[in-house]
Write a structure and sequence with these properties.
With 767 residues, the chain is of the alpha/beta class. It has 26 helices and 26 strands. It folds into 6 domains: 108 residues, LON domain-like (Archaeosine Trna-guanine Transglycosylase, Chain: A, domain 4), CATH 2.30.130; 87 residues, Methane Monooxygenase Hydroxylase, Chain G, domain 1 (Up-down Bundle); 78 residues, no CATH class; 178 residues, Rossmann fold (3-Layer(aba) Sandwich), CATH 3.40.50.300; 85 residues, Helicase, Ruva Protein, domain 3; 177 residues, Ribosomal Protein S5, domain 2, CATH 3.30.230.10. 35% of the residues are buried.
Length: 767
């Protein structure tokens, strides 16, 4: 046990270092510091005073202070505003911390005195004289230096006390004072002090030189330097951290912002420098300036120049989608050749699960650019795009600026996901706000309400995704080039599963190629028997379900082996098949026609059933049909009644029969005009007692005269027929031009039957 250990209340000073043999004053406001001052009465008015390492720490602990401090006697205490005190002390000697005990409301330090080590050598005396001479030289160079300090120091014969008093009163850096305090050998302390005084002399000479040159001519940079140094000195005298303002100014200037932006930043910084750091407005401005500095202006990544490598990346990450890849490669080629962004914004449209978001990610990989994703689904507030005004509480930049700030470059690939799912409320129209973002004529000077500066978005490659174009406003749609991603064929799904999905889901479920193997027949069965959507998301879920169950089996056995998933074992993991190999009718039926429809999830088949009963000529429609589809049914029925002689129905009195038309899956809403010829065929079949071929599907709008009008979504409808095993498709003759958009493999497998009138439809569809 060390019997020299003494316990004293510990007071932690911020930004100020005391040395022995001096009289000093300081203000106290922190709870623990106030309590320590009060506790000093119980310890003969003695305090242990130590400096904290980082002046920005508001509530320092025993780990945030230096090991060496001073023991001081409290001489006087003055009351300031509030609970703050001004304490006058006389420092006695240096001491080292051995242990600190946190008493909750103050610190109690166990300390040991660290006396000076004097050698009384000739070298030490020489350094002592040099030190006095350098301080005298400093007072001559610096007109602001106190002559009283020189007179006081002249009366101190002891080198250790001289070193303490001089170090405390001279304008040294706090870390220099702490080093001198920590050193116990007086010889070394004098060397440190001489070095610091020589720095002050050089600085004073430079300051004097600058001051003299100001009288003649001074440029802007010299003036700023001079003022910064003076400002730094003022903050030091106030015990405030003036370095923050200086550092922020240097960061703004180093950022090389556009002139208008730089002037805005410096203006806000000037306002901030005149405020108290405790002011709420100070925090608002500090947050704004930080956001301004973090925003990328000139930071960019270099685009990949090897277009063949870009093609390899796209092929490795996505199977199929050849037309989509072709358009993306064209985009990259033009960008590499011209060095400029195309004015067109790409919009990837297709059913869920076809890979729109992952295609956008692959574009960023192919270009070797950073990637940002912003989901617009459910966005109602215009401020999500343009930001809030910074005068509001909780204001922040919009998500466009925030995304660029987070990614750190001004030319990323920026994905605006689900652009068709935005909505409007009293807080504004986000779709209208997006016009400024996506319009090449406007986005070079995009203004975020929070930032209040023009920002150039022209270097950003914006890509949008949507399931449907119906809900996208026309002005916004006009700014985008539509690229359609249709559903996959069965063969494409099989390849995607084998190349990507099985490996991915096996890895995520803790399996390797040694643990699980899918046969080709098993993959075919999963695709055809358990999934029917246009994309591959549900296919991935089924594969994931199998992998989970295999992992569970291994866990129960407490060892990992290998499972081979075959066509026969699929039902063990997924249950009974949900779909048959195809969904066309197994036989030709009376009054039932197979139509083709388009939904936002892709194409689908649509059976239309019709039956005739005795009645009063009524037309009954069921199946949750929309107004347009009801009108198509009425038009079809009127056409048949008007042309009954031509159709061989002259003997039928339609006023004595009721016709019931039903579209199955009655809970699902259905609408659109393209089912017109399908309904007409079903009604004609019911009246003529002739069956409709089960190998034929059809789509087309009908008029009262029986003309067949063109429809939309032929590509998706054809894909739906192909998936269901229907290869004869009746289409409007004016839709022949749309066949070229269909994948070549599917196009060659289908037999397109173009028709002009409903008579031709009946000729090809009725047995």
């Amino acid at each position: 046990m060390d019997y020299n250990v003494k316990q004293l209340p510990m007071l932690i000073l911020r930004g100020k270092t005391l040395l022995p043999s001096v009289t000093a004053s300081f203000d106290v406001g922190r709870i623990k510091s106030l309590t320590a001052v009060g506790k000093s009465i119980d310890y003969n008015n003695l305090l242990f005073i130590v400096s904290q390492k980082d002046a920005t720490v508001e509530e320092p602990t025993e780990f945030d202070v230096y090991d060496i401090g001073v023991v001081a006697r409290v001489k006087k205490i003055s009351q300031l505003g509030g609970t703050n005190l001004r304490v006058f002390v006389e420092t006695l000697y240096r001491a080292e911390i051995r242990e600190v005990e946190d008493k909750t409301d103050y610190f109690l330090a166990s300390i040991v005195e660290q006396p000076d080590v004097l050698f009384d050598s000739a070298d030490e005396k020489a350094y002592f004289e040099v030190c006095k001479e350098k301080i005298r030289e400093y007072t001559l160079v610096n007109q602001k230096a106190s002559r009283e300090l020189t007179d006081v120091l002249r009366t101190i014969p002891e080198s250790d006390k001289f070193c303490n008093v001089a170090s405390f009163h001279l304008p040294l850096k706090e870390d220099e004072r702490q080093e001198i305090l920590t050193e116990t050998v007086t010889f070394e302390r004098l060397k440190m002090l001489i070095k610091s005084v020589m720095r002050l002399i050089e600085f004073s000479k430079l300051e004097k030189k600058i001051a003299e040159s100001v009288k003649e001519s001074i440029d802007k940079s010299q003036k700023e330097y001079y003022l910064r140094e003076q400002l730094k000195a003022v903050h030091k005298e106030l015990g405030d951290d003036g370095n923050e303002i200086i550092e922020l100014r240097e960061k703004i200037l180093a950022k090389k912002m556009p002139k208008e932006v730089e002037e805005k930043g410096l203006k806000e910084l000037d306002r901030m420098s005149k405020m108290s750091s405790s002011s709420p407005d100070y925090t608002v401005l500090r947050t704004y300036i930080d956001a301004l500095i973090e925003l990328p202006f000139n930071e960019t990544t270099k685009d990949r120049e090897d277009i063949n490598q870009a093609i390899e990346i796209l092929d490795s990450e996505h199977f199929g989608l050849e037309k989509v890849k072709e358009r993306i490669i064209e985009y990259i080629a033009v960008l590499n050749k011209t060095g400029k962004m195309s004015s067109t914004i790409l919009c990837l449209v297709g059913p869920p699960g076809v890979g729109k978001t992952s295609v956008a990610t692959s574009i960023s990989h192919a270009l070797d650019r950073k990637f940002v994703r912003m989901s617009l689904g459910g966005v109602k507030d215009e401020a999500e795009i343009r930001g809030h005004r910074k005068t509001y509480i909780g204001a922040m930049p919009g998500r466009i600026i925030t995304g660029l700030k987070n990614v750190g470059v001004s030319n990323p690939v920026f994905l605006l996901d689900e652009i068709d799912k935005m909505s409007v409320d009293l807080r504004g129209d986000p779709a209208s706000a997006l016009l400024e973002v996506l319009d090449p004529e406007q986005n070079t000077t995009f203004r975020d309400r929070y930032m209040e500066i023009p920002y150039d978005l022209s270097k950003v490659l914006f890509i949008t995704t949507a399931n449907s174009l119906d809900t996208i406003p026309s002005p916004l749609l006009d700014r985008m080039e539509i690229i359609e991603l249709d559903g996959y064929t069965k063969e494409e799904k099989v390849e995607i599963a084998k190349r990507y999905l099985i490996k991915k889901r096996a890895r995520l479920n803790g399996l390797t190629e040694k643990n699980i193997e899918f046969t080709d027949e098993a993959v075919n069965t999963i695709v055809s028997g358990y999934t029917r959507e246009a994309g591959v998301r549900n296919l991935e879920r089924k594969i994931d379900a199998i992998c989970r169950k295999v992992t569970t089996e291994f866990s129960k056995l407490k060892k990992f082996g290998k499972r081979k998933i075959t066509e026969k074992t699929i039902e063990k993991y997924l249950g009974m098949k949900r779909y048959t190999e195809d969904e066309k009718e197994s036989e030709s039926l009376l009054g039932t026609a197979q139509g083709l429809a388009w939904t936002q999830y892709g194409g689908t088949t649509l059976a239309v059933e019709s039956t005739v009963t005795s009645g009063k000529g009524a037309l009954l429609l069921t199946g949750k049909l929309g107004d347009v589809m009801k009108e198509s049914a009425q038009t079809a029925y009127t056409f048949i009644k008007t042309n009954k002689e031509s159709l061989g129905l002259s003997e039928i009195d339609f006023s004595t029969f009721d016709v019931h038309v039903h579209v199955p899956e009655g809970a699902t809403p259905k609408d659109g005009p393209s089912a017109g010829i399908t309904i007409a065929t079903a009604i004609y079949s019911a009246f003529s007692k002739k069956k409709v071929k089960n190998t034929v599907a059809m789509t087309g709008e009908i008029t009262l005269r029986g003309n067949v009008l063109p429809i939309g979504g032929l590509k998706q409808k054809a894909l739906s027929a192909f998936r269901c095993g229907i290869y004869d498709i009746i289409i409007p003759e004016k839709n022949l031009k749309d066949i070229v958009d269909i994948d070549e493999k599917i196009r060659k497998s289908l037999n397109f039957i173009p028709v002009k009138t409903c008579f031709e439809v009946f000729k090809n569809a009725i047995i």
